[in-house]
Amino acid sequence: MPSFITRELSKYPALNNFEQQTSVPKVYVILGLGALYFFLVFFNIAGEFLVNTAGFAIPAYYSLEALFTSGKADDTQWLTYWVVYAFFTVIESALNAVYWFPFYYTFKFCFIIWMALPQTAGAQVVFRSLMQPLFARFFEGGSTSANLRSQADKAQ
């Protein structure tokens, strides 16, 4: 396992330079930063900022990467993620759930990672089981703006 991680981390020149300059193995650097991140989130020390950064920055990178590929599967995956993330953010701000649940940001971080990972396809699960049944009636037969336009034309 460590050799696999070292091989993967060797793809990043900044980590290689850091390892050469400090003599600290890049695996230890990443594990240390990861442990610090989870410690801060778990004890809600800048939890909102850290979790929202993970929920925005990492998926934003992969969304941009998907836009530069010719396939549409990754585009659909990330579009679905952003729709669910936006819906979740609106609901979260309306309910102000942070004050109700202990370790809220720990659970939110796990939820966001589950939604974002292509292996788990969590955003698709949330979309198909919750959002699609709720909103499908508004989008049947094309986009809402097209339906509104046709209804307005009929009314005249």
TrEMBL record:
<dbReference type="Pfam" id="PF03134">
    <property type="entry name" value="TB2_DP1_HVA22"/>
</dbReference>
<keyword id="KW-0812">Transmembrane</keyword>
<feature type="transmembrane region" description="Helical">
    <location>
        <begin position="105"/>
        <end position="127"/>
    </location>
</feature>
<dbReference type="GO" id="GO:0016020">
    <property type="term" value="C:membrane"/>
</dbReference>
<feature type="transmembrane region" description="Helical">
    <location>
        <begin position="27"/>
        <end position="43"/>
    </location>
</feature>
<protein>
    <recommendedName>
        <fullName>Protein YOP1</fullName>
    </recommendedName>
</protein>
<comment type="similarity">
    <text>Belongs to the DP1 family.</text>
</comment>
<keyword id="KW-1133">Transmembrane helix</keyword>
<feature type="transmembrane region" description="Helical">
    <location>
        <begin position="79"/>
        <end position="99"/>
    </location>
</feature>
<dbReference type="InterPro" id="IPR004345">
    <property type="entry name" value="TB2_DP1_HVA22"/>
</dbReference>
<keyword id="KW-0472">Membrane</keyword>
